[in-house]
Amino acid sequence: MKNYRIALNFEDGVTRFVECGAQEKVLDAAFRHRINLPMDCSDGVCGTCKCRAEAGSYELGDDYIEEALTQDEADAGLVLTCQMIPTSDCVIAVPVPSTACKTGTARFGATVAGVTAFGDAAYELVLDVPAEAPAFLPGQYVNIEVPGSGQHRSYSFSSAPGSPRMSFMIKQVPDGLMSGWLAAAQVGQPLQLSGPLGSFYLRAVTRPLLLLAGGTGLAPFLSMLEVLAQQGTQQAVHLIYGVTRDQDLVMVDRLAEYARRIPGFSFDTCVADPQTRHEKQGYVTQHMPAQALHGGNVDVYLCGPPPMVEAVQKHFKAAAIEPASFHYEKFTPNLTVAA
């Protein structure tokens, strides 16, 4: 009988995956994987195990009381994990930290399969990983330890879940810790990673998408686009990729390939440098076509440096734009913060 993969995304950004058997309840599957989801009664009476199903299909039956889960809550995607029986792979948002469930971030090893430099703008790091490496959601990130430093850096996956190799798009930072290591990295060198992490990931696609990428903030969108290319979508998807300098505009050929593979996908690029020769000078907020907003019936995903995130938020507020949902992730060369 078919098993389903359930992603448990905790309040602190940690994600753990469990296999749930046919007709098995999510709470039981989590306990079997030694993850203690919140629970008092396990009988659909107390409501302690209430979570939000963000993707996937499932059954709840009627073995719970109204006080534990109202019809309005069920209609809004809330579930009782003690009653939830998946009928597909699912993503569940758990409203407590992973530590409260006696679990935490997974650690795993990998080896360098290749490093490609894009001028002085970015590196692409490709890793070979063991079969037991944890799964992730498209858009999430991991912490990569910089060998010999005792420190780590956070990078979003640019590869899709299930790919034979993991890849990352990493900004070149002058005198940067990871940049310095990558400049001399050799194939076969070992690395230690921990994750996956982050609440910035692709939800179920039920309406048009607007993707806004700043610099190496393109990485998680490459992961999302590969998933959309493999699974297909009936929704329009538009991406705007903004950078500071002409030479920062890398991997555009991959976007062109996705435009061929994904019906309804289009993209624009822009460069902020006033001296650019690029066709579109300025910031993403200056090149956001009204049709890409679909009158507010759009899910917006934004990944870029803090000034870009703040500028987009101000632009939406000033223009009275209220997308159906707005997911964003701020990053600096040394830190990733999801919201």
CATH superfamily of the largest domain: Nucleotide-binding domain of ferredoxin-NADP reductase (FNR) module
Q: How many DSSP E strands?
A: 19
In angstroms, what is the radius of gyration?
Answer: 21 Å
Largest sheet: 6 strands, antiparallel
Strand content: 25-35%
* Overall body shape: globular
Going across the major beta sheet, what is the strand order?
A: 11-10-13-8-9-12
Number of individual domains? 3
Written as H for each helix and E for each strand, in order along the chain, the element string is EEHEEHEEEEEEEEHEEHEHEEHEE
Provide the CATH top-level class of the largest domain: Alpha Beta
Query: How far apart, in Å, are the first and last alpha carbons?
Result: 37 Å
Which percent range fits the helix content? 10-25%
CATH topology of the largest domain: Rossmann fold
**Could you tell me the mean pLDDT?**
92
**Sheet/helix structural class:** alpha/beta
- Architecture (CATH level 2) name of the largest domain: 3-Layer(aba) Sandwich
Low-confidence stretches: none
Q: Determine the number of helices (DSSP H or I, runs of at least 4 residues).
A: 6
What would you note in describing this structure?
This protein has 339 residues and is an alpha/beta fold. The protein has three domains: 4-101, Ubiquitin-like (UB roll); 107-197, Translation factors (Elongation Factor Tu (Ef-tu), domain 3, Beta Barrel); 209-338, Rossmann fold (3-Layer(aba) Sandwich). It has six helices and 19 strands. The strands form four sheets. It has a six-stranded antiparallel sheet, with helices on one face. A six-stranded mixed sheet has the order 16-15-14-17-18-19, with helices on both faces. A five-stranded mixed sheet has the order 2-1-7-3-5. β17, α6 and β18 form a beta-alpha-beta unit. α4 (219-231) runs parallel beside α5 (252-261). The longest helix is centred in the middle third of the chain and has 13 residues, at 219-231. It is globular, with a radius of gyration of 21 Å. The two termini are 37 Å apart. The mean pLDDT is 92.
